[in-house]
């Protein structure tokens, strides 16, 4: 590489020398006009007259340039001489100083201030910066006073081939259709070179193919890759790895190069027909298969992809075209042979089909390569199966007369075994189809008979099933539907169609039609058959009603007398005979009920009941309703009064659901004094020994009686009052029936054996008492108030 670089530098220097010589020659041969632009410019000024006679002052500069270019990537031991500055005012005595400023001045470019020589002290790279703009000026060395105005000049970096070509967008991926013509464009690759394209051949690139021949080629100047071989088959090879090289210097020796990879994929076209792997396919189907079931599969393979590889199937010919059909499995692209109609081993044991496979999408460019189809033969053999018996008819319809005796023949069903074995058949009627067992069947010959007389009016049709089972083998069975119609026999007499009463007014006129009766018969009516009506013989000569047969299965009833009286007779029974004229004829006598009613002058019925005749005169229905209403109101008042009286007599006891907190209960009855023994049990107060130690609450009504708690003992005769009160307080606090709030406790015991006697004021009717209350002082602090009251009084009396 360094040898090539030195060679480039040599040629570059040679070129620069030749260019300098040519420039000098051009200078020597140039006329007065060209010498105005020479490199040696005087600094002296001269006068030049303008177009309008104006005098312009112009300064002449006398710079001398030895070089305008500097080679990049120079690696020599000495700095590169770029050029030399020289002014006309420089007499060589050293009084002039040259100054350099601008891009890279002092760092990259340095100037000898005495001689004006400019050197490059660093290696330059054109790809980083192609040129530098500098400013030069000559000044007095002692005073630094400019001797002339500054002047700009450009130093260009001369390019060398130091950058190889690069493919900035590689690697590349391309697609081209298989079977493409030679020269078909695949993709264009492009390389870039950082060298100067305007100088030399450093950036002139040439493309070539290093890998991928002989399938592809590349155009040297454009980088376009094209197919180089015809009929490239994707099914043979789908992907190709191609390596492309780009070389500068026009591809000559010494040029730099770069490579890239191109992966080319051949896309599919429909260039292959479908092919069956076999010329003949063998399949088998059992005769017991039902239509729609699969018989077998076959597949024609097409190596093409996607829609180019789709295959359609059809049956072209064969003796099984009506019994078999072919469909396609869209997922596996297989042909599915299915049963279209049932087959019978005993009838035909093999079938042949010719099946065709074809491409639905054919590329017109390759249609000459066809045909894009293939055919094969499918042979289907029918396998024998143990089939159930077959009835000679799909269903049977029989008739039997009603009321026929048991054992009457209904009909016969027949089935046979179609297998080669031809096993005997056993017949039976499944009980779930004939729950009441109206019929029986002979197990060997299939003859059906009745088991008892049948009634058409109860059930006109009997739908049963008969099963036929092989005797031996796999006991296959088959069933058939048998519909038995019960034929009608005229065994039911006719009767009225409706059992309604006929209402007639008391003042009805003779000859008036009061009713039209009709009849019905449970038996079937024959064509043109109708009912005949007549009065029963016992009323044929009655003087109240007559009957007329209308000969259309109806009859009209007329009144033949004038007026009726409900008081005399309110209901008439008219027996009528009805004959159906059947074979044999059946008749019946039906009674028509005729009720006499009271009517107004317009024959509007007012009442047909007899009760109004037994009511008192002048008492209407409205009056009866009013009387009943009054009775109901009186009963309600009595019930309300009784309920109020009961509510007042209820005892004033506070129930458990009532809230008795701070309630004031008023009792309106007064006590009868100490002699009133009805208000309380005086024996309990006089005999505390009889108490059980548990005093119930007086302000509530307890639901349960609680036993005496352990630790409570009966009160003795010499109980202390203070202990007694504490005991009662404890009982009240621990009573589970007591509510958790304050209540008034009544203590009716004053203490047994007390010398004070009763504390009640009821017995103290006089103010002069001889009792001594000094003992209250010894009862403790609870009785201190009483002791102070009574003791103080006594003391006061003594002092007086």
UniProtKB/TrEMBL annotation:
Cadherins are calcium-dependent cell adhesion proteins. One of its GO terms (biological process) is homophilic cell adhesion via plasma membrane adhesion molecules. Keywords: Calcium, Cell adhesion, Cell junction, Cell membrane, Glycoprotein, Membrane, Metal-binding, Repeat, Signal, Transmembrane, Transmembrane helix. GO terms for cellular component: adherens junction; catenin complex. PANTHER family: CADHERIN-11 (PTHR24027:SF85), CADHERIN-23 (PTHR24027). Residues 1-23 form the signal peptide. The chain crosses the membrane at residues 613-644. One of its GO terms (molecular function) is beta-catenin binding. Residues 87-167, 168-276, 277-391, 392-496, 496-614 form the Cadherin domain. It comes from the Eukaryota. The keyword Oxidoreductase does not apply. SMART domains: CA. The keyword DNA repair does not apply. This is Cadherin-11. It is found in: Cell junction, Adherens junction; Cell membrane. InterPro entries: Cadherin, Cadherin-like_dom, Cadherin-like_sf, Cadherin_CS, Cadherin_Y-type_LIR, Catenin-bd_sf. It is a single-pass type I membrane protein. It comes from Anabarilius grahami (Kanglang fish).
